[in-house]
Amino acid sequence: MQFYCKLDERPVDDNRSFDYEIEIKDTDPELFLQMLKYLCTGDVIYERDESSHFLKNAIELYSIADKYLLDEFRDQTEKYIISSMTIENAAAIHFKSAYRWPELKKKVKQFVADNFAAIIKTPCYEHIVKNRDEYPAFFEINTEILMNPHKKELADYD
């Protein structure tokens, strides 16, 4: 079986060997391998932590794609994050991570603002409020959500 590497569109010879070693200290090896697999095949496997509804590796993969300027990979991962967002996990995504990237933040913030009345009743949001010192942008994010002119449900909040 032969596959093509997206980097140069040449067939990849599985019998090639290299004597190079590159140490990458700031990225989890499994996540870096996922990135390399994406570069060679265009495929990526996202994992989900069902106990917390958090997108286990998608946020980290988004970070790696952004760091290495892999726009297609970042865009694909962003689409996965947005399509996987739920009332239960939106607060975790927004307060833990998304605020760091303006493009992702904008989309996540809109979802949170549109569903704020439901999101603030979730255990995840309650945990964030109780532990707000662990979330550096807690007050800034809440202010942005509350000031969002496009919010749908805040008028219904009791």
TrEMBL record:
<protein>
    <submittedName>
        <fullName>705_t:CDS:1</fullName>
    </submittedName>
</protein>
<dbReference type="Pfam" id="PF00651">
    <property type="entry name" value="BTB"/>
</dbReference>
<dbReference type="InterPro" id="IPR000210">
    <property type="entry name" value="BTB/POZ_dom"/>
</dbReference>
<dbReference type="InterPro" id="IPR011333">
    <property type="entry name" value="SKP1/BTB/POZ_sf"/>
</dbReference>
<feature type="domain" description="BTB">
    <location>
        <begin position="19"/>
        <end position="83"/>
    </location>
</feature>
